[in-house]
Write a structure and sequence with these properties.
This protein is an alpha/beta fold. 34% of the residues lie in helices and 14% in strands.
């Protein structure tokens, strides 16, 4: 894979609005889907990732200080079932991405977050699906 350029190409949503860099709370970042999604986001966007999981084996290469995106990814080792730090990380994020966590039912998420989050979550899943399909063909 080639090195990422100093700035990723500008991206636009379906309405033609420029997508600003987000802070994404990626719960389950150490798993198969989460690790691949983190890697794709680091290579192709300017988004910041708060990677949350109990293991970092699959994303360890993304956390190396020598990577061009080292200032845009943070790993937080915690168990989402019983760690109070999760709420603070979610509050500092623009988007929460997880199969185990439903952002729609949280009492500490802002309502303005939900409308943008729904669009972006769908966008990220489609993007991940297209990325993974490249390897299956």
């Amino acid at each position: 894979m080639a090195l990422a350029s100093s700035s990723a190409p500008q991206r636009f949503d379906l309405d033609g609005t420029l997508i600003q860099p987000l802070t994404i709370c990626m719960i389950g970042a150490g798993g198969f889907i989460g690790s691949h999604l983190c890697e794709k986001l680091m290579w192709e966007t300017e988004h910041t990732i708060l990677a949350i999981d109990v293991y970092s084996d699959k994303i360890q290469h993304l956390l190396e200080p020598a990577q061009p995106w080292s200032s845009r990814i943070e790993f937080h080792r915690l168990n989402i079932k019983n760690d109070s730090r999760l709420e603070g990380l979610i509050k500092t994020s623009d988007l929460v991405q997880s199969k185990q966590y439903n952002a729609e039912t949280t009492s500490f998420s802002a309502t303005s977050f939900h409308s943008a989050a729904r669009r972006i979550v769908v966008y990220l899943y489609v993007w991940l699906w297209l990325f993974l399909c490249k390897f299956c063909i």
